[in-house]
Amino acid sequence: MDPPVVEEGSLPDRINKRDRERKIIIEKRREERQQLAVESEQSSYFNDTFYSSCSKIKELLDSTSGISPVALAAIFDKINKEILTLKNYLHQSKMFLKVYDIRKAQENLQILENDALELETKLLPKKKFGFKNRRVIKKPSDGKNDVTDGLKDLQITESIVNGSGNSKKKLSSKYGDSASMLQGKIDESLTLDAENVNKNDVLLTDLTRCTVRIYGAPSTLHMVNLRQCTILVGPVSSSVFAQDCKDCNFAFACQQLRLHSSTDCSVYLHVTSRAIIEDCSQIRVAPYNWSYEDQMSHFNLAGLDPKINNWNCVDDFNWLSSEKNSPNWSILEPESWVKSWN
After folding, report:
1. Cβ distance 240 to 258 under 8 Å?
2. Is the pLDDT reported for residue 172 higher than 90?
3. Which of 95, 106, 302, 322 has the most CB atoms at less than 10 Å from its CB?
């Protein structure tokens, strides 16, 4: 005997339809609960692993008291490698972490990195930063310009190094005695070499219409009160901070960028996290395109992955809307990019 035919729109048909819809909703909720459980489990595992590793690094930092310089060098090498591993682990885990957890982890990493750098600078001080007046002349047998040390046929004057007098004391108290400083120059081309830059903090301040080339891997880069300048920098191992800059071209690679109170600047950027701007306007971003000999070795020294670049990911702290892009920054069109920095 054939089953009874259920007419569309009849009471049995409506009951069957509601039952199907109920089952679909139940299945959807079950999948959502499973997904939440997976994400929660992943997040919990990340936190346990990440912060356990942070604690081990802190223990290594605490163990440096009374250690010989040779042993210290090995310890700090291990610490720097552990921090780099944590950076990569955080980057790979971002897909299932909440924004708050990402920022918290980034802050902890930055604190660890700063503490490690400060302690390494204190216990294993490098030679004092300084230049003599010198000119590197290309040998007749050279087939191309030698830019390995960044002093390519360029006169370096004593007055640009480390500042002088009261201004030097004020800057040193704020940025540290070991910071390499260029300040108060107008209409000059300046170059810093890798030997003096690697693992050091660099400060550029009060420069007007200057071109600065920095070869190597600085620890941090600070730029304050620059006007109509072009600043070209190798890979920076941690952060770049810029404030009160106007009508400038920047090109650098870094782990983090923070740009404050600046306007009408083009930033050719390689950044492994996200760039942050605040109280800025007319900021244009493009991918990092300055290159020089030995640059890849400096990427390795800085602990930056050349394949990870979030140059077009910019957070504007003055723009809270998630529906519209901030009017304070834009992507620089390729036809407007600087093609050659020579």
Report:
1. yes
2. no
3. 302
225 CB-near residues (< 8 Å, 6+ apart): 205, 206, 207, 243, 244, 245
Q: Is the pTM of this model over 0.70?
A: no
pLDDT digits (tens, 9 = 90+) for 8-65: 556 667 767 777 777 777 776 666 565 545 455 567 778 888 888 888 888 888 888 8
pLDDT exceeds 90 at position 129: no
Token pair of 104, please? 């918290």
* Residue at 50: amino acid letter: F
pLDDT tens digits for range 190-200: 999 888 888 88
Token representation of residue 206: 């009060």
**Lookup: tokens for 221:** 């880069």
Distance CA 206, CA 185 (A): 7
CB 83 within 8 A of CB 57: yes
* The residue to which tokens 């957890």 are assigned: 101
Burial 62-91 (b: 16+ CB within 10 A, else e): eebeeeeeeebeebbeebbebbbebbeebe
| Largest separation between any pair of C-alpha atoms in the chain | 107
